[in-house]
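User: I'm curious what two different proteins look like when written out as structure tokens. Can you demonstrate?

Assistant: Sure. I'll show them one after the other, since each token string lines up with its own sequence. Here's the first protein:
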Amino acid sequence: MSETTRTDKQVLLSIKNLDVVFGKGKKAFKAVDNVSFDIYKGETLSLVGESGSGKTTIGRAIVRINPCSNGEIWYDGEKISGKLSRAKDREVIRKIQMIFQDPAASLNERATIEYIISEGLYNFKLYKDEKDRIQKIETIMKEVGLLPEHLTRYPHEFSGGQRQRIGLARSIVMEPEFVVADEPISALDVSIRAQVLNLLKKFQQERGLTYLFIAHDLSIVRFISDRIVVIYKGRIMEIAETEELFQYPLHPYTKSLISAIPIPDPRIEKKKNLFVYDPAMHDYSTEQPSLCDLGNGHMVFGSPTEIEQYKAIRFSEA
């Protein structure tokens, strides 16, 4: 695996030709189909698509919850998919953490907040003594905007936003290098979303974290991400840097996602023309589609004829 790219950024995580299939035989369902992309150290890469597009499945494959049916996942130059030694497995678990979508379902209702945040510290012995453990969990509680006296309480005593902060504290206290954030704000009130996003950015700047941010809302993704991967029914449709994608959306599915972003002015929103994506608009009977690099790190999925059309649009608009 190449450690660097033409931009001299270090590749931290690399997904190569990933397939994830659920079920067997006639009931087999391919949730992720031949997906490949790299994530650079210190960046936030957002994975965007509608519900059921395979975003969470990819995130879960990275943290080894979902097994890979085909392809490989590499982390920091080492393969982490498939069978690993116990020592390597523990190292991967500590370095790669996940923040889950539902802050209620991902916390043990019978455990105190102190135990929930300390569980990883206990399992990996990431503290010198009891005083050091208490100091670590109190410090992380303050950093996520909660109070040390909250430690003796249970998850049901907190609001959704507070529970997501607890989930964030549980991941960050492990001092990971890479975090899979699976729609961490979709279950929260709009007023709380910005606070959680700001916390994620703060931790990234202070600790040099790398994020895979999974979302279906492109307006939020624009605020937090360096690059965006657009996925539809398990296949990548487009990859580009954030502003490049918003200025020059080329794939019709990307255009449909951008057109769905609500406009704050109700009068303009009412007159807006929604672009609806129809997969039948592509004719792949004679030409096979593939993911092609148009230059500038902008990749689009399409047949050779479509790729030429996308190139013409992209460079005529530039």
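Here's a second, unrelated protein for contrast:
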Amino acid sequence: MTKKEKNILIVLHAIYLITLIYAFYWSVTTNNSSGLMMSFVAIITPLMVPAALKIFRLKPIFAIYLINIIFVYIASLIGSVFGGYSIPFFDKGLHFCSGLFLSTLAFMIFSYLKKTPCVEETNERIISVIFMNAVNMMIAVFWEFFEFAILVFFNNDAINHYTSGVYDTMTDMLVCFLGGLIITGFVVHWYTTNKENFWIKLNKDFFELNFKKDK
């Protein structure tokens, strides 16, 4: 990463830390036990991606850390601590973004398995598109399974079962699928025109940094 990129991450992490400290203060002064609990969770959430990279001995690129800190700030602090999920379409927006990120992750995994970020054969390109969307939707379904388990075992209605039935679950998976379709469109456009975009470059940069030696 360049010095400028590192400085950007330092500023964003500082903003996250300041907001986190305020989250604890706000939760305590308002006697918000749920907010206090989620403030503790917010300590862990931004560390999950860096920890995963460490475990798998992968080198980070700027875009991954940038997406991680912004997404976690919105989902964990704004959403879970300060009640952002009560804002109309807030939750759907995050699920849509998760579709973007999970599909990109799946494409990165496919590139690693093929030992190349540039898939050339038509059949393999078709398989890559199927793989991306299958992994995206598999994780989306597993997440809904998790939320359903929270409802069954702890009576915490994260899926809004009592107020919307299956509507919340289905729309969550639908917008995640739409996010995956957006990435599919970018990948197919790259396949047909050879013109790179942000998501393709993210995959290539990460591959070149971590897996080029395996080729």
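A detail about the second structure: The two ends are 23 Å apart (CA to CA).
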